[in-house]
């Protein structure tokens, strides 16, 4: 059985105060309602590419603030449990990680926004991270790699919608 490590709650303010904040903007070749449908589907981000290998909603539909899910990132990285603190139907959501199977973060949160852009969607994604004190120094070295790995997920989404 996996061991779980508690991660502290975060809110919208964390996206401006976190020690590490990564921003991604992509144009998706699908209208916001299709992107939104994908984000809240059973597969969600796992359908976009190999960055997320498993995603399980642990709350009943309809989803809203307080909904939860468990996400497994690319093999060997991590599994996290998430709780949503913002849910704007059709426009986006925000969540923070409540637990992780590795003791890496004090806080970890993500924000997703969808806006119409021409015939498609402007996808804006923000990731806020605060590493545990024991790994703050080594985290500086791996932060660029982690930023690129998250960026791959955004690029995977762009490719996913370009082919559908």
Q: Could you explain the architecture of this structure?
A:
- This protein has 164 residues and is α+β, with helices and mostly antiparallel strands.
- The protein has a single domain, classed as START domain (Alpha-D-Glucose-1,6-Bisphosphate, Chain A, domain 4).
- It has 3 helices and 8 strands.
- It is globular, with a radius of gyration of 15 Å.
- The termini are far apart.
- The model has no long low-confidence stretch (mean pLDDT 95).
Summarize it.
The chain is of the alpha+beta class and 164 residues long. It has 3 helices and 8 strands; from the N terminus they run βαβαββββββα. The model has no long low-confidence stretch (mean pLDDT 95).
Strand content: 35-45%
How many runs of DSSP E, i.e. beta strands? 8
Share in helix? 10-25%
CATH homology group: START domain
Please give the structural blueprint.
Blueprint: E1 5-6, H1 14-17, E2 20-28, H2 32-39, E3 52-57, E4 68-73, E5 79-88, E6 92-100, E7 105-117, E8 120-131, H3 136-162
Antiparallel strand pairs: 1-6, 2-8, 3-4, 4-5, 5-6, 6-7, 7-8
